[in-house]
């Protein structure tokens, strides 16, 4: 095994703007698959499928075996990583994060006006595009109230 490159961690799940990466192979290190399977107390083929990210579900007992046998923390075994879209900073992520943080909610003292929040968080020029889309004559009334959804043109 010495000198061999360890394959990258497989993505085992994706949801929204995060993905889960499983690091069982990296944590195995220089040990063989058979040695590691004996160490953690599981079938060699099952461990191989887990390392390759080919399992669709995993039991808590199996996670406990891996953590115990590999002498690691669960956070060493499973990593939460932002997806490419989250890393690129899609223009709607900043206003969405601001809303989730409580900024821009009407009626709360000391909070920003939603329109001002859009101006603050979107790149220059993009807020104006939203304004044009939501203020047109053919814009639906509910859409006109929201600066975050462009009007549906008919």
Question: How does this model look, in words?
Answer:
The protein has 154 residues and is mainly alpha-helical. The chain has two domains: 11-86, 434 Repressor (Amino-terminal Domain) (Orthogonal Bundle), CATH 1.10.260.40; 89-145, no CATH class. 47% of the residues lie in helices and 10% in strands. The chain has ten helices and three strands. A three-stranded antiparallel β-sheet has the order 1-2-3. The N and C termini lie far apart (63 Å). Residues 106-110 have low confidence and may be disordered.
Number of helices: 10
Could you spell the SSE succession in H and E letters? EEHHHHHEHHHHH
- Name the structural class: mainly alpha
- Going by CATH, the architecture of the largest domain would be Orthogonal Bundle
Strand content: 5-15%
So, the CATH homologous superfamily of the largest domain? lambda repressor-like DNA-binding domains
Rg = 24 Å
Task: State the main characteristics.
154 residues; mainly alpha; 434 Repressor (Amino-terminal Domain); 47% helix; 10% strand
Detail the topology: elements first, then pairings.
Layout: E1 11-15, E2 18-22, H1 24-28, H2 33-40, H3 44-52, H4 60-70, H5 74-77, E3 78-82, H6 84-88, H7 93-100, H8 114-121, H9 126-135, H10 141-145
Antiparallel strand pairs: 1-2, 2-3
């Amino acid at each position: 095994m010495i000198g061999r490159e360890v394959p990258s961690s497989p993505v085992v799940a994706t949801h929204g703007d995060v993905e889960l990466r499983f690091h069982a192979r990296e944590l195995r290190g220089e040990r063989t698959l058979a040695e590691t399977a004996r160490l953690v107390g599981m079938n060699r083929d099952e461990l191989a499928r887990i390392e390759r990210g080919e399992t669709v579900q995993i039991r808590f007992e199996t996670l406990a075996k891996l953590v115990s046998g590999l002498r690691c923390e669960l956070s060493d075994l499973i990593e939460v990583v932002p997806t490419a879209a989250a890393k690129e900073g899609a223009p709607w992520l900043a206003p969405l994060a601001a809303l989730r943080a409580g900024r821009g909610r009407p009626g709360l003292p000391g909070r920003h006006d939603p329109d001002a929040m859009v101006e603050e968080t979107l790149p220059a020029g993009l807020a104006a595009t939203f304004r044009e889309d939501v203020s047109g004559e053919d814009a639906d009334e509910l859409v006109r109230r929201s600066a975050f959804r462009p009007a549906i043109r008919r």
